[in-house]
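Quick one - inputs below.
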Amino acid sequence: MTSTPTSQFDAIATLEDAGLRITGQRRQVVAAIERKGGGFTAEDIAAELEGVGRATVYRTLKLLVEADLICKLALPDGTPMYSASRVEHHHHSVCTSCGAIEEFRDTTVERVLRSLTREIEGEIVGHRMEVFIRCRKCLDSPSG
Amino acid sequence: MTSTPTSQFDAIATLEDAGLRITGQRRQVVAAIERKGGGFTAEDIAAELEGVGRATVYRTLKLLVEADLICKLALPDGTPMYSASRVEHHHHSVCTSCGAIEEFRDTTVERVLRSLTREIEGEIVGHRMEVFIRCRKCLDSPSG
DNA sequence: CTTTTAAATGATACTAACTATCATTAAACT
DNA sequence: AGTTTAATGATAGTTAGTATCATTTAAAAG
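Output:
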C-alpha cells in the first residue's frame, strides 16, 4: 500500500467543512489535480475537463489555494503554476528546463523569517520563496 | 549632498556597455523609474510617459530586469510589480496594505540556499523570496 | 558632416490568465 | 418533494504582456 499524498477525500472534506457545496465540477477539478504529478496550469485542468467551464476551474483553484490545499507559484518570468500541497510550511523548487516542481521543507527558512522580524520594520504576514534549479533528470540527459 | 541610490547615468551606462542604443525613450523610462520611490507597475510608467509606446515601455523594463537594474516581483495574488535595485543580492518586503516595497539584505537567506544545495536534487540556478508585511506606516495609521 | 545600416520604435493585433455579469442549474436543508 | 441560495457556464471585459512589421533613428562608416 502506497501513501496517499493528497487524498481527494481530504480536499473535498476540507471544502465541505468550510461550508462550501460539493459539486460534480469541484470533484472533477480535485480529481484532475490528483492525477498530476508536479505542477500544472489552470489551462491544463480546463483543457482536460471539457465538461467543466473555464470560470469554474479558476474559481475552484482559487478556493483550493485559499484552503492551502494547493499552492500558486511562479516561474522566473512570472508565468503562474499551481502545485498540490503535500506537507505544511514548505517551499518549492522549480526546474527551469522541464518545469518540474518539487516541495521541500527547510526549517532554516523559518529561522530566517524569525531573524527578519528584527530587521524589517512592520509585521510579517506571509512570505514566498521559490528556488529555481536544473533538476537531476535534466542534468543527466544528453543535452545536459 | 544626498546619495544617488540609482543614478540614471549608471543605468544608461550599463545599457550602453551592453551594446544597446541609448534612445530618448529609454532615457525617459529610466528617468521615470528614478522618480518612483518604491514599487511600480509597467502601466504606471506607460501612463506617465505618453510620448513612449507601451510596447517600448515593456521592452525597456525587460532589458532593465535582465541587467539587474530593476527587479520584477509579485504581490501575494501574483500581480506583477517592479522595483528599482539599490543593492545587490537583496530580497523584498511588500506591504500588503499600501503596496510599499522595500529592499532588505540578509546573509542568512544566502546561507539557507547553501544548505539547500545538500537537500535539493539538482543544481540551484536562482531563487526568489518575498516577505509580505504590514508596514510601520500602515500599522500606525488610525485604521491600524 | 553625410551616408549607411541595423537596431529600436509605435501602431496594431494577438495571447494568457484571469475576473465580472447574470440568467440558469442544482446542492442541501426542511 | 419543495425551497433557497450557492454554484455554474456563456459571454464579455481586463490586465499584463508579446508578435508583427512598416517607419524611424542611433551610431558606425566613409
